[in-house]
């Protein structure tokens, strides 16, 4: 596996324990502390990858390892008379995480609020009752996943579209499997051309290496990534009529208002960053106040109809805290490995040896095996000297590379659980050559469509 090979290269590459260019930074890449840190991080990631079978939440091992890694760093630096160097570096990593966490917390709270107000359920029931053919439903759920995921996260999008497919395709297992593959590819592709579509794009935007509007240069390559495998799978679906269940669902009080406020919150975050030069997280937290104020009036209106009260803090409690804490463990752990010197070493191995284009394509392949969050955070921490076109390339590949395997993205893992055995790792693997064709085509389209951006420095 590429991940294991990289670890082996890291272990064998640096022959000495020395001081790097900065006098306050120690090179720990060939020190026993560095080896232990690498081994612990690899072990933690094995636990993450087998979470589906062990039900041991992924946040637990990575947070533990993050604490041990920085504990080891602090001990070594104290031994060398540099007690505050590690503290400064760790505070920098915590600041990066806090901005990401606050941004995501607001987005997750809005998604939970819309879910509770039946916004997504209404969309699902409307699709089920349209009386579409299986091919029409295949394309409609794919396109909706592609265009919803840039605003909502790909996990929520995949679950909504997956519920539609399961409701109308119970007696057609082949359709369910192909439709789920299509949804995973579409959701990941749609998230790649928007700063809000995926955690990796959000990280790239907050880091400032790609501007808000510049992400939309990836729209055509992302669309191609979805369309190529979908067009091939289309011919393997029987064009029978899907049957709905005539169920009716009504959006609760304030549901549409919350959708409008979510759009306004995104606009606020973008404005804070582009015009006021403030962190997007501050704009999102301002947007949280919109929801909290709206909740007061929704509660007051619901008391008149004797319905249950709408409570924002309950929506905050329902946010994906395991995911948020997992990000903490990953960002702090990778930050620690970077502080030891491993990311500079990896950057030299990948970007100096292979060149930026091949290295960025490899990042996408790697993200199908290892979660794209640590991969992208590592690239951002390495901060290789690349043009805008190359930064967009790595954003694209990290976003869509997870579609190569069912376990390569949150969308794929969630749909495997939802499908009741109709969509599995093996069923996805059978179509990997087709998905890989879409991956390669999208990269080639980006290299051609955005060729002028490869001369634009960051």
Automatic annotation (TrEMBL):
It is found in: Membrane. One of its GO terms (biological process) is sodium ion transport. Keywords: Antiport, Ion transport, Membrane, Signal, Sodium, Sodium transport, Transmembrane, Transmembrane helix, Transport. One of its GO terms (molecular function) is antiporter activity. InterPro entries: Cit_transptr-like_dom, NhaD-like. The keyword Protein transport does not apply. It comes from the Bacteria. The keyword Magnesium does not apply. Belongs to the NhaD Na(+)/H(+) (TC 2.A.62) antiporter family. This is Na+/H+ antiporter NhaD type. It comes from Bathymodiolus thermophilus thioautotrophic gill symbiont.
